From TrEMBL:
GO terms for biological process: glutamyl-tRNA aminoacylation. It comes from Acetobacter persici. Coiled coil: none annotated. It holds the Pfam family tRNA-synt_1c. This is tRNA glutamyl-Q(34) synthetase GluQRS.
Amino acid sequence: MTRFAPSPTGLLHLGHVASALAGWTQKGPHGLWLVRMEDIDPQRCRDDYATALLEDLDWLGLRSARPVLRQSANMPAYRATLDRLEQMGVLYPCFCTRSDIARESAGMMSAPHAAPDGSLLYPGTCRSLSAPARAAALAAGKPHVLRLDMAKALNSLRTEVPALWPLAYQDLARGTVQCQPELFGDVVLARRDVPASYHLCVTHDDAAQGVTLVTRGDDLRPATDLHRLIQALMGWPTPAYLYHPLLCDAQGRRLSKRDGAKAVRAMREAGMTPEDVRAAAGYPDALR
Ligand code: GLU
């Protein structure tokens, strides 16, 4: 079972189509292909975009084999996952603001300061808060995120489930990949504005929906190392992974929703057929 998991932050564009077809063409003759809306961010995601994405996919001949899961409606499942991680003692509340982190990171002399996704590596300030200070901040309703205590998570896995060590997964193109989740540091698993995060939700849903092959853009390759760690902590199965190159424009820039002309809707209005659009995304034979 494969899936396409867009965030409804704009209209379906050619990059999405390539990504959707990467999964579709790998599902096998009897396999299923699912669509999931990764819409936990109310600032960026819109219902009308979700509806338009599904309409355009339908026009392209790409229909989800099961009802479309909307992450925004799945919050209790993410909460339950956070509760389990909390019980394991591998989560802690962090009260730092973005500028606190930038200031604290700048004061540290050791490199590197960035996680593989480009975010600032958290210097660990709130990890060492005393229990009374933490309780007081929580009781005062101070806004906070929940972070994974990376060192603790890795240590507990190493000692409790040594058979899983070293953490690895199968990349269909490259074979066994050894993971380095530690490069992410104490990553945020529940945001301040949304009580969940991309890493938490995507890993939860791939497991809960029984996805056996995750096809995703090359940009998300490093994130899989972190997802593998969450799977190990939660005792979830590990799918296989396959990465596809990101579509770029003539200048070599990654296609995004800003490229209005590459929106499937515009192509459709300009008279292109679904087959033309599938071919433009690099999959001329996908539905034959
Ligand atoms: N929702 C993510 C995106 O739109 C992709 C999900 C994934 O493959 O992990 O980039």
